[in-house]
Amino acid sequence: GKWTPFGFVSKKNVAKMTGLYVPFWLFDIKATIDAQGTGDKVSYSGSDQITETFEFERKANLRWSHVPLDGETRVDDALMEAIEPFDFKGLIPYDYRYLPGFYADRYDQSPQDLAARATKRGMEGIDKAIKDSLKGKYDRYRIKKNMSKINSMDAYYALLPVWFLSYKYRNKFYYFTMNGQTGEVAGTVPVSPVKKMMFFFIVLAILAVITRFVLGIIMRGFWG
């Protein structure tokens, strides 16, 4: 990050790095889009604004495969979502010989426990699909009736590789997760007051130069 302190990302700051096979439930979600509304197209003729309003209807069947939800309460859900996606083409049947050298946890949340989260992810996908279908077609739109719904959800158990890292910087710990396939990293980094101060003075210097330049033009015009 641009505000990360100098020297934060250093091997000497890595307090602990652990490879863990995190228990996930992979949801296959089937849904139906059924929405109606109106959309406006705005154009201009000289100084006049012309607005045309049209009715639209959106109907479609959607399916998402392998939507991953971690099945362990002590694992941060937001961090797990932040390091998506995983490459599910690499899934293989369970074999204990992959586990030596890594930790592996067992789930403590069932698919039923995660049903609300899976439904939320599905509804967010429906909303995105509707918005994407209207984007560029109308300048603004209103959904008047939305009967879209989740039809079914099936869940499959899988262990997915995640690295957990803890950084110790100035006697404070910062925690990160990393996708064991893609290297995607998520976590919270400290903010450097030095960098912020440097940025402030750089902006101040630029504004001072611009102000001096503008005042110079104004004064030359005044005395001229």
Which band does the percent of strand residues land in? 35-45%
Gap between N and C termini: 49 Å
Chain-averaged pLDDT = 85
The multimeric state of the shown protein is single chain
Shape: flat
What's the number of extended β-strand segments?
A: 7
Q: Helices and strands, in N-to-C order?
A: EEHEHEEEEH
Judged by helices, strands and strand pairing, the structural class is alpha+beta
* H/I helix tally: 3
Low-confidence stretches: none
Rg (CA only): 26 Å
The proportion of residues forming helix, as a percent range, comes to: 25-40%
Largest sheet: 7 strands, mixed
Question: Could you please describe the fold and organization of this structure?
Answer:
By secondary structure, this protein is of the alpha+beta class. The chain has three helices and seven strands; from the N terminus they run E-E-H-E-H-E-E-E-E-H. Strands 1, 2, 3, 4, 5, 6 and 7 form a seven-stranded mixed sheet that branches. The longest helix is centred in the C-terminal third of the chain and has 31 residues. The model has no long low-confidence stretch (mean pLDDT 85).
